[in-house]
Amino acid sequence: GAVVSQHPSWVICKSGTSVKIECRSLDFQATTMFWYRQFPKQSLMLMATSNEGSKATYEQGVEKDKFLINHASLTLSTLTVTSAHPEDSSFYICSASLAGVNSPLHFGNGTRLTVT
Amino acid sequence: SQQGEEDPQALSIQEGENATMNCSYKTSINNLQWYRQNSGRGLVHLILIRSNEREKHSGRLRVTLDTSKKSSSLLITASRAADTASYFCATDRGYQKVTFGTGTKLQVIP
């Protein structure tokens, strides 16, 4: 149980285009999902908290107009990287949790974005 | 900002040996979690220890938590080649908004 599916697993796009990444909780409902970014050989940096039915909460230094997050249902959150640039190339990972305090996070397998 | 720092950054051991990784953090927490990441993949939850717990076991994993020292350790006993991965600690200060440590890259040599 508690499976999170992330799609696509990798994507290559040209500078200036937008890319959408989907994160789905397959067998549970997630009112909150989280989006992270991971640079090579580094840790995960929380980008934003995605809340179903309301606006996402972005971490300091993350451009909300650059990284659009939509959480339209209890099982789907999307991250759209708008007007992508080569510096946006990274590994993006989402996570979701079953409700409740002291519950672990369940992660998608990540999306490798390469902007050329 | 990253709250947790882990050491060592990298660890190489022979199969069958034990591996110990340490994590330090700076603020009060609700719980501390350990995750494993295989190269280019998402994270897999290993174990969660609450702030009022001192030790927890799960199979070959043993986690300790010392809130007075703001530190935790993960012990993997009788390591296997399949344990080769990066291991991250993550601190939860509330609302499941965890902060990840810098990670330990473990290599288990067959």
List the helices and strands and how they pair.
The complex is a heterodimer of chains A (about 120) and B (about 110).
Chain A: E1 4-7, E2 10-13, E3 19-25, E4 32-38, E5 44-51, E6 57-58, E7 67-73, E8 76-81, E9 90-97, E10 105-107, E11 111-115
Parallel strand pairs in A: 2-11
Antiparallel strand pairs in A: 1-3, 3-8, 4-5, 4-9, 5-6, 7-8, 9-10, 9-11
Chain B: E1 5-7, E2 10-14, E3 19-24, E4 31-37, E5 43-50, E6 55-58, E7 61-66, E8 71-76, E9 85-92, E10 98-100, E11 104-109
Parallel strand pairs in B: 2-11
Antiparallel strand pairs in B: 1-3, 3-8, 4-5, 4-9, 6-7, 7-8, 9-10, 9-11
List keywords for this structure.
heterodimer; A: 116 residues; mainly beta; 7-stranded mixed β-sheet; 4-stranded antiparallel β-sheet; 0% helix; globular; B: 110 residues; 6-stranded mixed β-sheet
Task: Summarize the entry for a quick read.
Chain A is mainly β.
- Strand fraction of chain A equals over 45%
- Main sheet makeup of chain B: 6 strands, mixed
* Proportion in β-strands of chain B: over 45%
What's the count of strands of chain A? 11
For the report, how would you describe the main beta sheet of chain A? 7 strands, mixed
Report the uncertain regions of chain B. Answer: none
From the helix content, strand content and strand pairing of chain A, which structural class follows?
mainly beta
pLDDT average of chain B, as an integer?
92
| Largest binding interface between chains | A-B, 26 and 26 residues
Q: Radius of gyration of chain A, Cα only, in angstroms? A: 13 Å
What is the average per-residue confidence, as pLDDT of chain A, rounded to a whole number? 92
Description of the molecule:
The complex is a heterodimer of chains A (116) and B (110). In chain A, the strands form 2 sheets. In chain A, strands 2, 4, 5, 6, 9, 10 and 11 form a 7-stranded mixed β-sheet that branches. Chain A has no helices and 11 strands. In chain A, 0% of the residues lie in helices and 53% in strands. Chain A is mostly beta strands and 116 residues long. With 110 residues, chain B is an all-beta fold. Chain B is 0% helix and 56% strand. In chain B, the strands form 2 sheets. In chain B, strands 2, 4, 5, 9, 10 and 11 form a 6-stranded mixed β-sheet that branches. Chains A and B meet through strand 4, strand 5, strand 9 and strand 10 of A and strand 4, strand 5, strand 9 and strand 10 of B.
